[in-house]
Design a protein that fits this description.
Blueprint (H helix, E strand, L loop, with lengths): L20 E3 L5 E5 L4 E7 L2 E15 L2 E5 L3 E5 L5 E16 L12 E4 L2 H12 L6 H16 L2 E2 L2 E3 L4 H12 L7 H8 L3 H12 L3 H18 L4 H7 L5 H12 L3 H7 L6
Parallel strand pairs: 1-3
Antiparallel strand pairs: 2-7, 3-7, 4-5, 4-6, 4-7, 5-10, 6-8, 8-9
């Protein structure tokens, strides 16, 4: 049985303004982070792409959290206060782009698919960030073209604001395998299932089952990055069977959880 002893990051909106660092320029570089390491809340005046070629990286803002394995990258718009956390040993590639360069045309954080070509472009572009040769400028142009064409994925766990949803979220974050429905959970948080259903749509823009699936997928990515067995992850995250977990995971991320756990750098399947 898996036990969850990971430190829970303080929500961005709860952190003191004095603790939020301001970095005018978003760096382009490679960082290696140990499992559990984090980069505290900060913002910069540039856009940034965060890509974990190995391990899983999570980005948290006051709007929610995004978790990305090696088949996904995270888009962080200029001015967004955010924090990073590593799950597993993470090879984090960061690409900074001026605020005037927005190939995704997104004003909110997002997740984009990373195929083999885009992956190699990101890795190559972050390898020598101080290089200003004509070759590197051409590389940047191809990278921007691939970013414009990259499919976007709604792999987002929004943060609730209504106190009743906050309480419900805390229950399920503590135990994603909790299978109680809205009626049973509503008796704990003091709201009817009809009220909670309405709040999920109004506050989070999704249904309760959709939100719970996102929560379970996020936790599954973290556990897999920590080398937990697939069957144990399926059980800990509340799926009725390992095969059901594999099907949902493949639909969300394009590969099986087994390949994700074996390699860290997953192959397309």
């Amino acid at each position: 049985m898996l036990t969850d002893r990971r430190r829970v990051a303080l929500p961005i909106r709860c952190q003191s303004v004095t603790k939020i660092r301001h970095l005018p320029i978003a760096p382009t570089r490679v960082r290696t982070l140990t499992s559990g390491a984090d980069i505290d809340a900060h913002r910069h005046e540039d856009h940034q792409i965060a890509y974990a070629a190995r391990g899983v990286v999570a980005v948290t803002t006051d709007r929610g959290s995004w978790v990305a394995p090696a088949t996904r990258a995270l888009w962080i718009p200029a001015g967004t206060v955010h924090a990073h956390q590593a799950h597993g040993e993470v090879e984090l590639h960061l690409v900074g782009l001026p605020s005037t360069t927005n190939p995704l045309r997104l004003s909110e954080p997002g997740v984009l698919a990373v195929g083999p070509l885009l992956r190699e472009l990101i890795v190559a572009y972050t390898r020598c960030p101080d290089d200003d040769t004509a070759e590197r400028r051409r590389l940047r142009g191809v990278l921007l073209d691939q970013l414009r064409a990259a499919p976007q994925h709604p792999v987002h766990l929004p943060t609730p604001r209504d106190p009743r949803l906050v309480a419900l979220g805390e229950i399920l974050r503590a135990d994603p395998a909790d299978r109680r429905g809205l009626g049973a959970l509503g008796t704990v948080v003091g709201a009817s299932d009809r009220t909670l259903s309405r709040l999920f749509k109004a506050d989070l823009g999704m249904t309760f089952p959709q939100w719970r699936t996102q929560l379970r997928l996020h936790r599954a990515l973290v556990l897999l990055a920590e080398d937990a067995p697939v069957t144990a992850v399926a059980h800990a995250c509340g799926w009725s069977s390992t095969s059901a977990f594999i099907d949902v995971f493949r639909q969300a991320f394009g590969h099986t959880p087994g390949s994700h756990r074996r390699t860290g750098n997953v192959d397309s399947q």
